[in-house]
Design goal:
Blueprint (H helix, E strand, L loop, with lengths): L3 H11 L11 E4 L18 E4 L22 E4 L2 E5 L3 E9 L8 E7 L5 E9 L9 E5 L5 E7 L8 E10 L6 E11 L6 E4 L1 E6 L5 E9 L10 E6 L4 E5 L5 E8 L3 E7 L8 E4 L4 E3 L2 E2 L3
Parallel strand pairs: 3-12, 4-13, 14-20, 14-21
Antiparallel strand pairs: 1-2, 3-5, 5-10, 6-9, 6-11, 7-10, 8-9, 11-13, 14-17, 15-16, 15-18, 18-19
Amino acid sequence: TVSSFDSGQVAKFVVGSSPFGTTGNWIFNPVNRNYPSVTTNIPGQDYSALLMGEVSGNWSSIIPRPTDGSEKSTAVNAPHLVTSTDNEVHIPIVVDGIAYKGIISYEFDLRYDPAVILPYENPVELIGTVSRALFAVSNKQEAGLLRVAAYGPMPITKDGILINLKFKAVGTPGSVSPLTWERILFNEGDPGTMATDGQVELSATELDQAEINGRLLNSMGQGIPNAQVTLTDTTGQVRTALSNSFGYYRFVGLQFGQTYTISAHSRVWTFEPLTVSITDQLLNVDMIANP
């Protein structure tokens, strides 16, 4: 009997997170045959080989890798982030060209520097992303490598934030961790994928600098995820951040006495811009969406 539990076991096999049952093992039918006496040719003695976990019939020992872009149909981008040390790092993975292509699964291996950032125990967040109807499993056992598989019965219908990854900043100020795609695959390689690497840079809020943080909320007090927050100073310099799955955003390395305008943009919600002045090292600014 095939059940949803089987899907979970296969997904655990994909990311190498044991135990995962018999997925990936060959069994044979019949298991064996006995011949008490062979005095002539015996035809029709074939064996059927069954690969546990294989359901689509296209098994191959070759592992697909990201394309070089010449056959691009789906684009996956890791961001270039700057964040402070001793801070939770939310890494939004953006996808374009995935909507209405029948994508019900994807898997990837992402390399990072474990001296700079480390994944949380449950590093995958699907709430508020285009993958919110899927299930996900991950494996972070090998230092510097995060393996993720996501799957579900309903296909992805939008472009946008594919998945949010949660890391802890552990490196020193100025250290940088690359975010390198070692392998990424949608469904079983169709459509083809172009993957763009990213990085996380750690900075520190010095004694003569400040930070602004806050939360984007709707009228019911619920956090609004994956909204772009823009910070503009009086000289016209612009910084951007993305609200996390709970609606939080953060800007660091700001100057005392400086005045900033904060604006937020979401596909669903609208916000009135706010103007604030830095008078303390930490300024909390929540923004409530228009009803």
